[in-house]
Design brief:
alpha+beta; CNF1/YfiH-like putative cysteine hydrolases; 6-stranded mixed beta sheet; 5-stranded mixed beta sheet; 6 helices; globular
């Protein structure tokens, strides 16, 4: 259920795999995405299971309506009856509030400054990385008192540069914005490494405490992959502060 966990000075990071939930094929088992066609009751049950497994209150998890952009929302609690905003990063200075990001090949980015008590979760697919969603999230964090030198960054399972095949024109366009994302597939065709691009952006921003998941979602059948399966579930990354 929880594929990876890490705790640094009271900052908690967790990434799910696809197992341990109640969703049926083709979303089996732990689908946490509410907009992919799965039974809403199953998604609700899965979100409760995942939250309880990592030790957070399901009612204190904040989700986004992700749109592959660079929009950021600063939050101090769940949305309640209001719809989640169309953003790809959320930031909070509320300790104990868990921020969640959904992915199925894109890069889930979790950030926290334990000293300032500021955390962020960002959804960095190819368009979001190019648009600068991660720098936007860090800027929002610094606006709440975070220091990039203290920020801890963890990126979760995502499609790797050996598998993310793209047209040559797309690779050139993306690499013109972020050269570190330039890649080649294991079979010798143009590719992109979005995780490498995200980590290069974080490095330039002064975020040095970083770790990257070794899991490629397309290669791992323990994880959801949109590029591999199209109709499939969504993984989640969670970040929160004591």
């Amino acid at each position: 259920m929880i594929g990876q966990r890490d705790t640094v000075n009271g900052a908690h990071f967790a990434f799910t795999d696809r197992w341990g939930g109640v969703s049926a094929v083709p979303y089996e088992e732990l689908n946490l995405g509410g907009a992919v066609g799965d039974d809403p009751a199953a998604v609700t049950a899965n979100r409760e299971l995942a939250a309880k497994t990592i030790g957070v209150d399901p009612a204190r998890v904040v989700w986004m309506n992700q749109v592959h952009g660079a929009g950021v929302a600063v939050v101090d609690g769940p949305w309640g009856e209001d719809p989640a905003p169309r953003v790809d990063a959320i930031v909070t200075a509320e300790r104990g509030l868990a921020l969640a990001v959904l992915t199925a090949d894109c890069v889930p980015v979790l950030l926290a400054d334990p000293v300032a008590g500021v955390a962020a979760a960002a959804h960095a697919g190819r368009p979001g990385m190019v648009a600068g969603v991660v720098p936007a999230a860090v800027r929002a964090m610094t606006g709440l008192g975070a220091d990039p030198a203290r920020i801890v960054a963890r990126t979760g399972p995502a499609v790797c540069g050996r598998c993310y095949e793209v047209p040559e024109t797309m690779r050139a366009e993306v690499a013109a914005v972020e050269p570190a994302a330039y890649a080649e597939t294991s079979w010798g065709t143009p590719a992109l490494d979005v995780s490498a691009g995200v980590h290069a952006q974080l490095e330039r921003l002064g975020v040095h405490d970083r770790a990257q998941s070794p899991v490629c979602t397309l290669e791992s059948h323990d994880h959801f992959s949109y590029r591999r399966d199209r109709t499939t579930g969504r993984l989640a990354g969670y970040v929160w502060l004591d």
